Amino acid sequence: MATKASGLVAKITALIAVGMSSYHLFTGSFGAPEALLHRSIHLLFTLVLVFLINPLSKKQRKWWLEGVFISLSLISIIYLFWNYEYFVTRYPYVHPLSKFDLILGIIITLILLEAARRSIGLAMPITAVVFIIYAYLGPHMPGLLRHAGQNTETIVDQLYMTTEGIFGIPLGVSATYVILFVIFGAFLERSGTGQFFMELAAATTGKTRGGPGKIAVISSGLFGTISGSAVANVMVTGQFTIPMMKKTGFQPHFAGAVEATASTGGQIMPPVMGAAAFVMAEFTGLPYITVCKHALIPAVLYYLSCFMAIHFEAIRTNLKGMLEEVPSLISVFLNKGHLLLPVVIIIYMMFAGYTPMYACIFAIISVVILANLKKASRMGVIKIFQALEEGAKGTVSVAIACACAGIIIGVINLTGLGLKFTSFVLLLAGESLALALFFTMIAGIILGMGLPTTAAYIVMAALLVPALVKLGIPTIAAHMFAFYYAIISAITPPVALAVYAGAGLAGSNMWKTGFAAVRIGAPGFIIPFMFAYEPSLLFIGSSWSIITSFFTASIGVVMLAAGMMGWFLRETNWIERILLIAAAILLIKPGFYSDIIGFIFLGLVIFMQKIRQKK
């Protein structure tokens, strides 16, 4: 009986997921309803899927209880539909709430917190609850944190009755952009594009030293175009790359670290970055393709460093390439090259000025058409339905995180905490940009340990980024700085989700894997400071400054990889490692004098290594 019930629920879940994807494809093609309606429909689909996919108890499912949660979600959102004119024409905080407004506002908030607990863990709902408590306790808070205090009616008004809370910009980004790109990724995966990326990486680097590790870097960078999620990236590509790395001699902890580090970079690699990048586009008022342009050089530097770290480690430990046959580059493109065209199409369309939504819809259609050019990649009705189902399910955690972040943003705006926190950071930093950046880095890593990347970035954008902008950093550089550290927490012990996934697949110690990941991904911790001080690394400035900054920074990240791995022209001693790391930092930092000193340090290391080689 239980099996029959589970089978029925699975079918219902699949139908709802397909319905959700179909709704968003339709609205993406022909136009969405008003913001409040569109976001509430998106949230309703998401809440229903959460309670169907993530039961309260996996041992013994209590369907009646899941039914209660789903029914309350339906009632709260349908009430909004039914009274839509009232919601949008009333004066917030002036018109008193009815009993239904108040009760259903409290219910949807509690339902959302429970959905967040089930789908993304305890950290996010706990953070939201802390902010709600802060709204109540304003008069009792010390110093700059003090405010007048809010009552339940005002809080519900902000969170439920306006687009300043749960139905705010973060949820709007999820409903408008993120879900379409996740559906696009699901279609790419079902067409076999993920396997094509693996074969392409193997064909280009498989036979070189440390080939499987380099395959992990290239395939994870390419697969990031599909997933935009570090953990998802690890779990998909890591199943193939980690065993290959171990087979050719990489230590298990290093293999897990390579995959975790490479997969984390998927969120910073254009054209499809993490969901937070779409939120960044909304917050900064820049087109998404412009955000991608600003992110390109740092992403290339990150992956170049990962690639060279593996190369130096392979030489140091005398590892070879793959012994078995790898496919030729020509055969890979002849057999599956057509699968790359949808990615080319979406990039071209965004650069040509089409909206991300339109470009994504067109690219999804092109996946189906192009996949059917060859039998091996053909997408029939079943595969299309599976892609629609996976696309909706893949959006659930992001949508819930965005809705929950709406609670936090709502409280911040209601209490004026954003302005207070900006003043606090400026007071603490004492007009020192270095200190403000350091505080932001620490906050980003800590927030990213417990919150999804999108939520961590949103909190930082509300509380910390304004202080950086006031200290003179360009707006996009300040947002990109926060974005980077929200992401890099995925490989930063003690709570490093990508490392957990990589260590699990590699069967290695989490701590050893984590520290190896930090060594490989070291540029991810340094580059944000560099573009904060000199934004030419973000394509801001003259062509000459951008080219020279990219050139010297590229040499710098190679030196950093050498210093971290302990090998350059030969094995390095501790003095050479210090000089290499110092040279790297000076070269990554744009500036004529820092570059000169960096090259002097590099020349000194080369001289020392040549002298030792002769001996």
SSE topology:
Layout lengths: L1 H29 L4 H19 L9 H20 L1 H6 L9 H22 L2 H14 L15 H9 L8 H23 L1 H13 L5 H13 L6 H18 L4 H13 L10 H10 L3 H29 L12 H8 L4 H11 L4 H16 L9 H35 L1 H13 L3 H18 L2 H11 L1 H6 L4 H14 L8 H10 L3 H11 L2 H11 L9 H23 L8 H15 L3 H23 L1
Helix pairs in contact: 1-2, 1-8, 1-18, 2-3, 2-8, 2-18, 3-5, 5-6, 5-7, 5-18, 6-18, 8-13, 8-17, 8-18, 9-10, 9-15, 10-11, 10-12, 10-14, 11-12, 11-24, 12-24, 12-25, 13-14, 13-21, 13-23, 14-26, 14-27, 16-17, 18-21, 19-20, 20-21, 20-23, 21-23, 23-26, 24-25, 27-28, 28-29
How many domains? The number is 3
Mind telling me the C-alpha Rg?
25 Å
Portion in helices? over 70%
The separation of the N and C termini measures 78 Å
Shape: globular
How many individual helices? 29
Description:
This protein folds into three domains: 1-190 and 326-414, no CATH class; 207-319 and 416-533, no CATH class; 541-615, no CATH class. Helices cover 75% and strands 0% of the residues. The protein has 29 helices and no strands. The protein has helices at residues 2-30, 35-53, 63-82, 84-89, 99-120, 123-136, 152-160, 169-191, 193-205, 211-223, 230-247, 252-264, 275-284, 288-316, 329-336, 341-351, 356-371, 381-415, 417-429, 433-450, 453-463, 465-470, 475-488, 497-506, 510-520, 523-533, 543-565, 574-588, 592-614.
In short:
Helices cover 75% and strands 0% of the residues. The protein has helices at residues 2-30, 35-53, 63-82, 84-89, 99-120, 123-136, 152-160, 169-191, 193-205, 211-223, 230-247, 252-264, 275-284, 288-316, 329-336, 341-351, 356-371, 381-415, 417-429, 433-450, 453-463, 465-470, 475-488, 497-506, 510-520, 523-533, 543-565, 574-588, 592-614.
